[in-house]
C-alpha cells in the first residue's frame, strides 16, 4: 500500500487556487513482501469497480501465479489473506471542504476461498480512499515483480506517488520506521542501524530495478537525525531495464500483421515507431496484394524503405499468401482476446503459458516477444483455444 505523508499538491492535482494537503494511507503492522505484493494485485484487480461493487473476485490459481508462489500452496495464500484482514489501514487528511478527516479500517474487510475463486472486499470508506488517485497510486506489476526485498518495495510505494513533485517531503523518523514496518524494534531506534539495514539496501534496490531514482536526505535536531526525505526522479535506464514490456505497440493489429509476415519483434516496433501505424499498414496491404511473394518480410522491408505504391514495385515469384493471411488473422484474434482480459488476467495468462514451456529457447522467445512469439505460435494458438474454447483462434 502507498503510505506517504502530508504534502502540498501541484500541477494537475491543484484545486483552483486552494492548496490542499493530502495525507497517506498508513498501514500498520509488518506486511511481508508476499503480503505487500498480494495487496497490490488484489487492488489492481478490483480498481475499476472499487466503489461500485461491494466485493471482488479473482481466480485463486491466477492470483498465486501473479504473486509468484506455488498455485497449489493454499495454506500460504490463506495465511497471506489473513494477514491483510488483520492489518489496519489509517488515514488522516483534509476533505474537499478543507475539514480534517481521520479514519481507520481493516485492509480487507473479508476474504474467502471457494471453488478455486478468491472473493474479497474493502470497507466502503477505505475503498473510496483507495480509488482516489490523489491518495493512492497503482503500482506497475511489471516493476513490482523485480523487487526481492520487502523494505525496498515498501519504500518504492511510499516514494512513487511523489515522482511528479520530486520529493516525499520530510518524514519524522518515527513515521518512517512505521512505514517500513520496523517501529516495534529497539534495534532500529538507532539511525545508524536503520540506515545500514533498511535505508541503504532499499535505496540501492529501487535505483537498480525500478523506474525511479531515489536519494535520501536527513535533517537533525541537535546531533541526532530526526527527519528524512527522499528526492525522486525518473530512472533514465528504464528502457534498458526492460520494465516496459511493449504491450501498447504489441496490442495493435499492425504489429500482429507484421508478426504474421515473419518480421522480428524489434524490427516491427522500430518500423511502427519510425513510420507510424498507418504507413506500415499501407505497405502491409501492398505486400498482401501481391500474387506471389517469396519472402514477405524482406519484400515488406523494401516496400517500407523505398515507399512502394500500387503502381510501382515489381511483383516477385514465390509462395502464395493464403497461409500468411490465415496466420495473421489468428495473431490478430489472439491480440483481441488478450486485450479483452483485465490487467490481472493478462499477467496470469502469461505466467500460466510460460509454466507450460519446457525448452529454454521457447521460454526466451516468449519473454522477448510475448504472444507474438513466432517460435511458440502453434502452442499459443492451442493455449487460447483451450482457455477460450467458445472463441477459438483456429
Automatic annotation (TrEMBL):
Alphabetized Pfam families for the sequence: Rep3_C, Rep3_N
Domain of life: Bacteria
Initiator Rep protein WH1 domain: residues covered: 18-159
InterPro entries assigned to the protein according to its UniProt record, in alphabetical order: Initiator_Rep_WH1, WH-like_DNA-bd_sf, WH_DNA-bd_sf
Gene3D superfamilies given in the database record: Winged helix-like DNA-binding domain superfamily/Winged helix DNA-binding domain
GO BP annotations listed: DNA replication initiation
GO molecular function (one): DNA-directed DNA polymerase activity
Annotated family: Belongs to the initiator RepB protein family.
Name used for this protein in its record: Replication initiation protein
